[in-house]
Amino acid sequence: MSQPINLNKARKARDLAARRAQADENALRFGRSKAEKEAARKSAAQAKASLDAHKRET
């Protein structure tokens, strides 16, 4: 016969796993250093400037 499980502990373990998964997702999305943010901003600005330079005047 199987062992009885504590439903309260199972619920808490499930909630903890969900919170850790959310934390990992947030770390990927928002966890960038200041230098990485600045490099991405400069790259986007260069791409925008390059695109604007190739636009035709109407």
Name the helicity range. Answer: over 70%
Cα(first) to Cα(last) distance is 80 Å
Radius of gyration: 24 Å
Low-confidence segments: none
Number of strands: 0
Query: Beta fraction of the residues?
Result: under 5%
How many helical stretches?
2
Average per-residue pLDDT, rounded, comes to 92
Structural class: mainly alpha
Could you state the order of secondary-structure elements as H and E? Answer: HH
Tell the overall outline: rod-shaped
Seen as an oligomer or otherwise, the chain set is: single chain
Q: Major sheet, described briefly?
A: none
Describe what you observe in this structure.
It is a single chain. With 58 residues, the protein is an all-alpha fold. It is built from 2 helices and no strands. The N and C termini lie far apart (80 Å).
Explain briefly what this protein structure is.
The protein is mainly alpha-helical and 58 residues long. The protein has helices spanning 7-30, 34-53.
Labels describing this entry:
single chain; mainly alpha; rod-shaped
Secondary structure topology:
Blueprint: H1 7-30, H2 34-53
